[in-house]
Every structure is written in structure tokens, then in C-alpha cells.
Specification:
It contains four helices and no strands. With 70 residues, the chain is mostly helical. It is elongated.
Length: 70
């Protein structure tokens, strides 16, 4: 979904040599390209795209039974 905030930011990218149409094509294209564009434009926080919250990941311990010595 392209928000008014994103449209304003897309318009600002024209100074960087990217036309608003090109930026819009990227944001409406595949998900990976859209996420990269949002990160580069400062419209998304990298941690908001994590599968697990950082606090939970820090507390988690993963063990592999196959690698444990008996």
C-alpha cells in the first residue's frame, strides 16, 4: 500500500536521479524490492521486518539434538 507519506518521499527521490514513476514501480513490484526501497527511504525500521522480536530472540536458546554429545 502506498501512503501519502510514501508519495512525498518518492517525490523527494527525484533529486537523486530517480523519477517518481520509477520509485512507484519499485514499491508496487516484488516484496523484496519494496522492502529494500522502504528501508533506503527511511520509511521502515529493519527490526519491524524481523520474524521474531529482538527481545525474544535474545532469550532464545537453540539446541540441536543431532549435535549434542551423549
Amino acid at each position: 500500500m502506498v501512503t501519502p507519506r510514501l508519495y512525498r518521499r518518492i517525490a523527494q527521490t527525484a533529486a537523486a536521479g530517480v523519477t517518481p514513476v520509477q520509485a512507484q514501480q519499485v514499491t508496487e513490484g516484488d516484496r523484496r524490492a519494496r522492502e529494500r526501497a522502504l528501508l533506503k527511504l527511511g520509511l521502515a525500521d529493519p527490526q519491524s521486518m524481523y520474524l521474531f522480536p529482538v527481545a525474544l530472540a535474545r532469550k532464545t536458546k537453540i539446541r540441536f539434538r543431532e549435535l549434542e554429545e551423549e
